[in-house]
Amino acid sequence: MAEDLYSVLGVSRSADQKEIRRAYREKARKFHPDVNKTPGAEDTFKRISEAHDVLSDPETRSQYDRFGENFRQYAAADAARSSEQPRRSGGTRYTWSGGGAQSVNWEDLFGGGFGGFGRGADHTAELEITVEEAYRGGRRTVQVASPYGGAQEYTIDIPAGAVDGQRLRIAGAGGAGADGQDGDLLVTLRVKDSKRYRLSGADIETDLPISPWEAALGADVSVPTPGGPVTVHVPPGSSTGRRLRLRGQGMPRRGQPGDLYARVKVVVPRTLSKKEKELFEQLRDVSSFDPRRGS
Hints:
Elements: H1 5-9, H2 17-31, H3 41-55, H4 58-67, H5 71-81, E1 96-97, E2 100-101, H6 106-110, E3 123-130, H7 131-136, E4 138-145, E5 151-158, E6 167-170, E7 185-192, E8 197-200, E9 203-210, H8 212-217, E10 219-223, E11 230-234, E12 243-246, E13 260-266, H9 274-286
Parallel strand pairs: 3-7, 9-13
Antiparallel strand pairs: 1-2, 4-5, 6-7, 8-9, 10-11, 12-13
Helix pairs in contact: 2-3, 4-5
C-alpha cells in the first residue's frame, strides 16, 4: 500500500494550503537530489513533489480525500458515470532527466537562489486605490497568485493619507523559509485619480461647477471634499479655470496636511425659460463686455 500523501509531507489531513506549502518546501530542500546525494533521495523527492502536487490543488485533494490512493481511476469512473467531462488527472509536477529537475523553480524553492536556506523570499504585489480611499484609509483584500495555481487572499489596512508608491508589509505572507521564518508580502499602493478628485503630492484638485451669475456676482458655494462638504467663497468676476484654495483640506499628513484646490467651471444652462432668455437678452443689449478683447 502506498504511503499516505499527508504522511509524506508530515501534515494533518486538516492542514491548510500554507501548512502544505511550508512542509513541502522544507522537505524539498532536504531531499532534492542536487543537494542530497544519499541513495533514495531522488525517489523521496519525487514522492514529496507528487504529494504536494495533489494536495495543493483543491480539486485533486478533494478526490484524494474521497477515493484514496487510486483517486485518479475512481474519479475518472465517477465522472464517466455522471456523463461529465473528465477532470484533470493531476500528475507529478516535476520530471527528471539525468540528475536535474526540468521544471523546478529554484528561486521559489530555495527562497532567492540555490543554496539560500535562510529567510524566505519577499513577494511583491500592487494595489490600485482611489483618492477617496487614500484619504480615508480602510481595509482592502488583495489576491496574490500562487506559484502552484490558484490565489491567496490577504486583508490589508490602508492608512489614512496613503501616498502613491507607498509600500505596506504583510509579515510572513511571502516565501517559506527553511529556518521557519517566512518572507513578507510587500504591497505597493497606486493611487488613481477618480472622476471627482485629482491628486498632486499631498494636494487634491476638484472641479467646482458654478452658474454664470455666481461667477459674475460672487457667491458662497458648497464644495465636496473627501472629508465632507466645505463652503468656499467664489469672488465676483471668477472665470473658468480660477483656482480657489482650501487650506488643510487635502491629504492628511503628519504635521502639515495638503490643500484642496477647487477649479472654477462656469456652466451655462442647456435650456432657458422664456423669462431667463429675456433677461439674458437684456444683459446682452446693455453690456459692453467682450471676452475676446479681454475687457
